[in-house]
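In this section we walk through a basic example: taking a raw amino acid sequence and producing a predicted 3D structure, encoded as discrete structure tokens. The instruction is simple. Fold the sequence below.
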Amino acid sequence: MSDKPSMMMKHRLMAVIGICVLALLGYMLVNMFHISVTEAEKYQQLANSQQLRSKVINATRGSIYDANMQFLAKSATVYTVIIDPGTLRSYMSDEETIAELKEKGTYVEFDDIVAFVAQTLDMDEDTVRDRFNRDGNYQELKKNVEKAVADKITEYADEHSLGALACIPATKRFYPENDLAANVIGHLHYDGYGIYGLEAYYEEYLAGVDGRILTAKDSAGNDIPYRYKQNYDAQDGDSLVLNMDRTVQYYLEKALKEGVAKNNPADRASGIVMNAKTGAIYAMATVPGYDLNEPAEIYDEATAAQIEKITDEDEKQEATSAAWGKQWTNKAISELYYPGSVFKVITGSSALDEQVIDLDDTFSGATSIDVDGETFHNWSTRDFGAQTLQNAMTNSINPAFIQIGQKLGIDKFFQYFKAFGLTEKTGIDLPGETGSLYIDGDVMTNVDLAASSFGQANKITPIQMITAYAAAINGGYLMVPQVVDKIIDSNGNVVKDITSEVKRQVISEETSEEMRTILETVVNTSQGGNSYIQGYRIGGKSGTSQKIDEDKTGNTYVASYCAFAPADDPEIIILVMVDNPQGENYYGSLVAAPIVTAALTDILPYLGFFPEYTDEQLEQIQVSVSNFQYVSVKNAKKTIEDSYGLSVEVIGDGDTVIKQIPASGSVQRGGTVLLYTEEDEEIKTTTVPNLSGLTLEQAKSAMEDAGLNLSVKGSAVYEDGAVAGADQSVAANTEINQGEIVEVTFYAGEATSQ
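The resulting token sequence is shown next.
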């Protein structure tokens, strides 16, 4: 029998081999398809990582401007100082290079390099030496180095041929106004993206797009010549132009800070200035705020001191985090409060518009009212008798507005509550806006309706309150508040124009006009507890609410005030809210109204709204004294007497004014200016009287007897019964120069409405 394979065996073997070859070929084809098609991107990235070197070119972040194109935020060039340890080691070990540098006199020892870098960058030498000795080709020494320091490093590296030491340009966010509008502008994360305020909300526009430089590498990791390099330019971020005005913001914050210093609120204060017709936000502030250039610094000194005393590190960090969260939060849009009597504007407008009441109807002015077994008290223990809507608004009568709410009924009340935007966010272009907490009409009881009617049941944000109030007095239109006016590119071209947006008309033009008249009368009738400013037509309403959800005793309050001007054609509307004042007063009329008055006194003329006086008012207003030093006595005397309506006392026989008292400042008409005409003339002195509790006429008389000038503050000053407070600018019994100015604030003689 032959041991050679048969033909059948050969065919069988060939078939097996063929099958194996085909299987192997199929496997190879499948894998080739998988690698070249299915996972092409993955392997391309792996190849690129081995063959390409990528360097990021940072885009310049867009700026933030106020309405007058003043910088509120901008990016400045800073530098990151780096070292390449591998290149440095080559430098220190290359004998040929060392010999060449020594011949030039530019060689420098390793320890000298470390010492220079540490001293220039204000770093510890051991830290710098450690970075120099690490493995790898890139070690960061210090970020955010200013140009002057970076120039020293670069000059040193060039002088000693230190290619291993370099300064890479980067950008740093800079806020020229420090804490101004901090809670609106917001700040950046350490990685360079916005995390609060406008910086976060408009991140997509501000950030821009980083560029890249891609360079091919050879097998040794060296760059291949220039023709293998690709540049992708960075696209700089767009800039924001705000409706906010730096000067208006300053005036608002100045008034708020003075109010906070006086009333010491436990939970901060906030304010908003808005265009009543368009919703454009002119100013928005939370006080105290924080420094945008140092956001991690605890800005409130008392809070910082408390945290510093904590010894447990975990507890300290927890307290620090809580303080950060509080100071970075925009109170005007992110914190809820009971609006109190300011809300009566909404209740009154709704009832008028629905025609369930008219201006001649009367309501209870009693000290209390009972609703389904629940007793609601008025703010005063005085029975005011029958009250029209005008009376009830002026005197801020809770029982009257409960009755007005009952006239509306639950369904209609909630219908208007919703229409005024109080069940939804306003849509303001800022992050972190909070929605309201309210009692829905489906579950509202008569007791709930009663509390809601005077603003003591539903919690809203200040931005919701001011937009609803604006709708009540601007013709009935609910506007979307807008912080940003437009977005522009790096060449100044408009990328996006943000126009005013009307959500809906809530009440009629006629109802709105009636409400304007009512609120102007409120201010004019009780000037001491309102935002009365001579020469201006202003409407307004105060509010005092109890924080009953936080303090069941009812002894924790929120004081607020909302005003608008001109009253007949509103342009400017302002809301101030002081949360839990700790001073001797807590009524909105005594705490928030003076802040509004102080702010409007500066803001209105700045925005082009000037006072118009009656003849009687002209006799009462104060005048601002100019300095006539080195002017002839004759001319100075004539101008002071004829233009200012002040008396003049000339002291000495000279012809020229050598010294003037007061040198400047605002004084009551009828005051006296002392002009000294000789260098060695002795200055007359006098003792400051105690003005506390005196009426304006009594204060004038006391100051005149003392030979001093009176400057008055406070919206109550020209109201019957108004008296001077104890906070005069120069303490009683102090000896000062005759003619100097003493400033005193006047307050209403009787308790005013909430």
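Looking at the output, two observations stand out. Confidence is low (pLDDT under 50) at residues 223-228. The longest helix spans residues 7-38. In the next section we compare this with other chains.
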